[in-house]
Each structure stands twice: as C-alpha cells, then as structure tokens.
C-alpha cells in the first residue's frame, strides 16, 4: 500500500482519536444549547410587523442550526464509540494491519 494511503492500527491512537471526537461532540452539544438560548432571547414583544417577521425568520434559522448541531454531535459521538470498539477489537485480536484512509 502506498505511503500515506494507510495507517497502522494502534489501540492507543484509536482511543485518543475517540477522545478528541468526544470533545468535538461536546462542543456540538454546547453550540446547540447556545442556538436554543439565542432563539429564546430574541423573542420580540410589541414591535412592528416587519420586525416580528424578521425575528421569526431569525428564530427559524437558529432552530435549524440547533438541529444541525445536535445531529452533528450525535454522529460524532457515534463515531467515537465505533473507534473505541475498533481499539478494543484490535487489542483483543492482536491485529496490526493497515486500514485504508481517504486521500
């Protein structure tokens, strides 16, 4: 396999990568919370129809970003779990092969 096209499987590296993905998932969850807070904080009262329309659009955009952050956080957390499972399986089998990675 050409150099740079594969990576040695090391359980410690897989676990370290999983830890970093967990941190990224936590950041996604935090971002989702901030989008939710911003939606609540930007609720208009007693303003013009145009301003209410703009606020409604803003709230919809924030809700969409909140949903995106939740999905991304869940997917990232799932990937971290799969890496941990791979780390355990390579340790238990003693596999020291190569895995292909995208260029």
TrEMBL record:
Domain of life according to the entry: Bacteria
Identification of the protein by name: Uncharacterized protein
Organism in which the protein naturally occurs: Amycolatopsis australiensis
């Amino acid at each position: 396999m050409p150099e740079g096209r594969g990576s040695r499987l090391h359980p410690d590296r897989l676990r370290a990568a999983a830890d970093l993905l967990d941190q990224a998932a936590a950041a996604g969850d935090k971002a989702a919370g901030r989008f939710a807070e911003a939606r609540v904080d930007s609720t208009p009262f007693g303003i013009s129809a145009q301003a209410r329309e703009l606020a409604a659009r803003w709230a919809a955009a924030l809700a969409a970003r909140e949903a995106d952050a939740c999905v991304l956080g869940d997917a990232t957390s799932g990937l971290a779990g799969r890496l941990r499972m791979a780390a355990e399986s390579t340790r238990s089998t003693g596999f020291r092969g190569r895995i292909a990675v995208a260029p």
